[in-house]
């Protein structure tokens, strides 16, 4: 009887312990984060989440991966099913639409103050909603596009190598060099503009809007918020007709040839209109033959893009304080920053800039940082942006495939204005 009592007691103790563990597990706070990214980034987020969970055993971080090309579709599905995660990664130009639609919380009260104080001006700008001027997102990085050149080809045509934004190639120089490079042995295409990214990503609008801006036009009038008369104006038509001519001349790497012809075997592309992230791969293959230059000045002024993938907390989050705690942990994580440096990530925090010698004065990517401070133009911060970018990308694709530029841009402008009208001007963007 005594032994049986011990067994019963042991069983009760064990059962109680298991129930306690189960209760503790049930009591854990789950914070869900949706993100995109290449395999290296995906693996890194998993490791950072593990470290955070070890330091905060009452929290589970659930990571939700969405492929880059399908990210916006997956986000839309989460909205429709009312299952938005606590944290989302979003492309900066979509922020105005997400805030206007009620998806995001202001973020300042949830992020560590030292990180808020550490943000560069462009980082603050890409995370700020233009109506209430509040901060809704933060990132470790920002972005830019530069013109990469293969030095051995440029030397063969005697090309001038610009060292700063003020020294950028003119349109006449740029097109003269394209024509000359087309005749150089070993060059199959003078330039890769990364058509291979397609029109399901944000690339076409992000990378080509600066050409419109340099011509003196834009995707939309940023005062009246109308596209007709702006996107289909003569300067924009001239800009896209110019690019169409490059394609017709066989100067541009076709979409079917992918996105790495600048450093692919044989180095068939002499120039690359590429993002800052491209530098790490290109330099690893071409080493000292890589030349980094500012984007050309096609009209009276230079222009470059900015804005990248940043982190926000959704209005559906039941634990925004813990979500903010994890984001702060992520942005300060040493491995996260070290990996970002290895990927030639563009600094969006001052402390990260200090860790990024590529962008320091005299560094190989210093001209990209100079563009950000002198000539960067953000994509339109308007709730209609999803329609703006979709309409423009479709128009560019049609133009590159032979459509008349005026016709394609007029149709795009009408589509944008129709969306804005259908939403009553997206008040208060309509002034009301």
From TrEMBL:
InterPro entries: SBP. Gene3D superfamilies: Periplasmic binding protein-like II. Keywords: Periplasm, Signal, Transport. Belongs to the bacterial solute-binding protein 1 family. The keyword Signal applies. One of its GO terms (molecular function) is maltose binding. It comes from Pleomorphomonas diazotrophica. One of its GO terms (cellular component) is ATP-binding cassette (ABC) transporter complex, substrate-binding subunit-containing. It holds the Pfam family SBP_bac_1. SUPFAM superfamilies: Periplasmic binding protein-like II. The keyword Signal applies. Residues 1-27 form the signal peptide. GO terms for biological process: maltodextrin transmembrane transport; maltose transport. It comes from the Bacteria. This is ABC transporter substrate-binding protein.
């Amino acid at each position: 009887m005594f032994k049986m009592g011990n067994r019963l007691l042991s069983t009760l103790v064990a059962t109680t312990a298991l129930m306690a563990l189960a209760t503790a597990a049930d009591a854990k706070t789950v914070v869900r984060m949706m993100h995109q990214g290449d395999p290296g980034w995906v693996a890194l987020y998993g490791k950072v989440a593990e470290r955070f969970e070890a330091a905060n055993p009452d929290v589970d971080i659930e990571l939700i991966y969405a492929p880059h090309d399908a990210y916006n579709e997956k986000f839309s599905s989460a909205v429709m099913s009312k299952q938005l995660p606590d944290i989302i990664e979003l492309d900066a130009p979509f922020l105005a639409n997400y805030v206007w639609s009620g998806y995001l919380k202001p973020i300042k009260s949830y992020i560590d103050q030292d990180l808020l104080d550490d943000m560069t001006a462009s980082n603050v700008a890409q995370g700020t909603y233009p109506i209430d001027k509040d901060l809704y997102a933060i990132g470790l990085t920002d972005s830019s596009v530069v013109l990469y050149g293969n030095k051995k080809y440029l030397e063969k045509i005697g090309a001038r190598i610009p060292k700063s934004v003020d020294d950028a190639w003119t349109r006449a120089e740029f097109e003269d060099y394209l024509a000359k490079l087309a005749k150089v042995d070993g060059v199959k295409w003078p330039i890769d503009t990364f058509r291979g990214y397609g029109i399901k990503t944000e690339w076409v609008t992000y990378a080509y809007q600066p050409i419109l801006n340099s011509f003196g036009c834009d995707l939309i009038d940023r005062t009246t918020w109308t596209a007709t008369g702006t996107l289909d104006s003569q300067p924009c038509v001239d800009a896209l007709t110019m690019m169409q001519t490059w394609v017709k001349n066989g100067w541009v790497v076709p979409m079917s040839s992918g996105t790495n012809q600048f450093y692919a075997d044989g180095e068939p592309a002499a120039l690359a209109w590429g993002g800052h992230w491209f530098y790490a791969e290109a330099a690893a293959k071409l080493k000292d033959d890589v030349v980094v230059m500012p984007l050309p000045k096609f009209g009276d002024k230079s222009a470059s893009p900015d804005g990248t993938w940043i982190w926000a907390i959704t209005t559906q989050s039941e634990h925004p304080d813990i979500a903010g705690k994890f984001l702060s942990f992520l942005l300060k994580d040493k491995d996260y920053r070290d990996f970002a440096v290895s990927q030639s990530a563009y600094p969006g925090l001052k402390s990260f800039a200090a860790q990024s010698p590529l962008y320091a004065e005299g560094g190989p990517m210093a001209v990209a940082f100079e563009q950000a401070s002198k000539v960067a133009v953000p994509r339109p911060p308007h709730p209609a942006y999803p329609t703006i970018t979709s309409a423009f990308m479709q128009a560019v694709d049609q133009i590159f495939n032979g459509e008349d530029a005026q016709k394609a841009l007029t149709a795009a402008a009408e589509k944008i204005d129709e969306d804005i009208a259908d939403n009553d001007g997206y008040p208060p963007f309509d002034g009301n």
